[in-house]
Amino acid sequence: MAGLPVRAVGRAASIQARGLLGQDRAALREQARVATADDTRATLGGLKGGALKLGQLLSTVDALFPADPDSSWQGALGALQEDNPGLPFDEVEPVMAAEMGVGWRARFREFDEHPTAAASIGQVHRAVWSDGTPVAVKVQYPGVADAIAGDVRSLAVTLRLTSLVARGMAMPPLVAELRTRLGEELDYRTEAEHQRAFASAYETDSRYYVPPVLAASREVLVTHWMGGVGLAEVARDGTPAERNHLGAAYQHFFLTSPTRVGLLHTDPHPGNFRLLPDGRMGVLDFGSVLHMPGGLPPTFGGLIRAMTATDPAAVEQQLREGGFIAQGASIEVEKLMDYLSPFSEPSRHEEFSFSRQWLKSEFGRVNDPRNPDFTVALQLTIPPDQLFTHRLWLGLVGVLCGLGATVPVRPELEAHLPGFADPTG
What is the per-residue pLDDT across 4-29, written as a single tens digit (0 to 9) for each? Predict the structure, then answer.
C-alpha cells in the first residue's frame, strides 16, 4: 500500500526526465495513468482483507475519480468487484481439509481447483456436489483474520488522528462497530444463517433469487451455483432497458428487505448482484448484514424527507432525534442541506436518471474545500449503529450512477422507507 504513491511519484519523475529528451509528454502521462490504475488494482486485489474491501467500496463511487478518457480507473476499480487474483489451491486446500475433513473431496463429484472469483476474505471455486447439484464453494484465505485485525488497528490510529480535526465525530464507537461487523464476516456459519433467511424469504419471488446453502463451517461455505451476468457487465454492455430493470430491482431490494427479512444486506458493490436469464436479480455474499427486526430506522427516512421539503427546522429536528448532532452543539443546517444534496436530490423526483456525470458534478461542488459548506459535515456525529446504513446509501447512489439507470425514486421511498412518507398524506 505504501509503495503505491512512491511508484506514482516515480512515474511522474520519469515523465519529466523523458519530456526533457523530447518525448511526447501527453502520451507519457497517459501511459503513467494507465500504469497507476493497473498498479492500484493489482495491489488491492492481491492484498485481500480490508485493503480489498476499501477498493471495492471505492468502485461503487468511481465516478468521483478524475476524468478518464479510456476508462482505465473505472476498469481497474470495476475489476475489484469480481475479477481478483485468487491464491493457488495448494495454499487454501489445508483449510478445506481442516473444515470438511481429510476426505473432503468425496463430498464432491467434481471440484475445479482454479478459483472463479476472489473476494476480500475468501475465494470461490466451482464444483458439483455429491448429488449432482452445481455448487459454489467459498474458502476463506489462511491468515485473513489476522490481516483484517491489523487493518482495523491501522484504521483506528488513522481515525484517532482524524478526530483531532473533526472533533465532533465519535471515532472509537465507529471502530468498535466496524470490528464487530468484520468479525461476523469471518465466520461463514453466521453468513450461512443470513443467507438461509434471505433464501427462505425470497424462495417463491418472481423478482429475486438467493442461492440456497448446502453446507457451512467457520471457513468454508457451500451454496447452489448461480450464473447470470454481473451488474458491472450490465452497466458496461447492457441495453438501457436492462440497466433500468436491474437498477429498479437493486434499489427496491435494499428498501424492502429489512421489513421482509428483518435483515439488511450492507455490501452494495456490484459484484454481489447479477442479472439472471429469467430477468430476476440474483444476490450473493451475506457476510455483511445488519439485524433490523423493525425495518430501516425512521430517523433516516425522516431526515431525507425533511431535506426534500427544504425545511431547515425539520432537518435539524431529525438530526438531533437521530443523534447526528451532539447535545448542546449548534450547526448551520442550511449549509448542511446543500452539502447533502447528492443524497436527497433523487428523492425529490418521481423518476430519476442516475449518471456518473451527475454524481461527479454534485460531489465536485460540495467537496471543494473552498466551498464554505465543506466543513459543516465534519460537525456531524454518525451513530455507530447507523454507520453501515449510511455507507450502504452512499454505495447505492454510486452503483445506480455507474449503472446509468433511470428508476422510480420518490414513490419507492414513500412506500418502503419508514419516516419518509408525508404524515399529512
Answer: 555 665 666 666 666 666 677 667 66
3-state DSSP: the chain helix, strand, coil percent, rounded to 5? 60, 10, 30
Q: For residues 64 and 87, what is the distance between their CA atoms, to the nearest angstrom?
A: 31
Nearest C-alpha neighbor of 230 from the set 212, 244, 243, 214: 243
The pTM for the full model equals: 0.73
Assess contact for 103 and 85: CB atoms under 8 A. no
Largest interatomic CA distance in the chain: 72
243-276 pLDDT, tens digit each: 999 999 999 999 999 999 999 998 888 889 999 9
Nearest to 141, CA basis, from 93, 73, 107, 104: 93
Q: Tell me, what amino acid is at 167?
A: R
Cβ–Cβ under 8 Å, residues 163 and 247 = no
Q: 332 CB contacts (<8 Å, ≥6 apart)?
A: 376
**Torsions phi, psi for 223 (to 5 deg):** -130, 165
Beta strands in 258-384 (DSSP E): 263-265, 273-275, 281-283, 289-291, 351-353
**Range 90-96, long-range pairs (CB < 8 A, 24+ positions):** 91/142, 92/123, 92/139, 92/141, 92/142, 94/142, 95/139, 95/140, 95/142, 95/219, 95/220, 96/139, 96/220
Distance (Å, whole) CA 58 – CA 409: 24
Q: How far apart are CA 363 and CA 348, in angstroms?
A: 18
Amino acid at 179: R
The answer to whether 121 and 140 have CB atoms below 8 angstroms apart is yes
Q: Which of 344, 275, 269 is nearest to 312 (CA)?
A: 344
- Specify the 3-state DSSP secondary structure of 211: coil
Distances (CA, A) of 170 to 163, 167, 266: 8, 8, 21
SS3 98: helix
User: Which value, to the nearest 10 degrees, does the dihedral of the CA atoms of residues 175, 179, 182, 183 take?
Assistant: -170
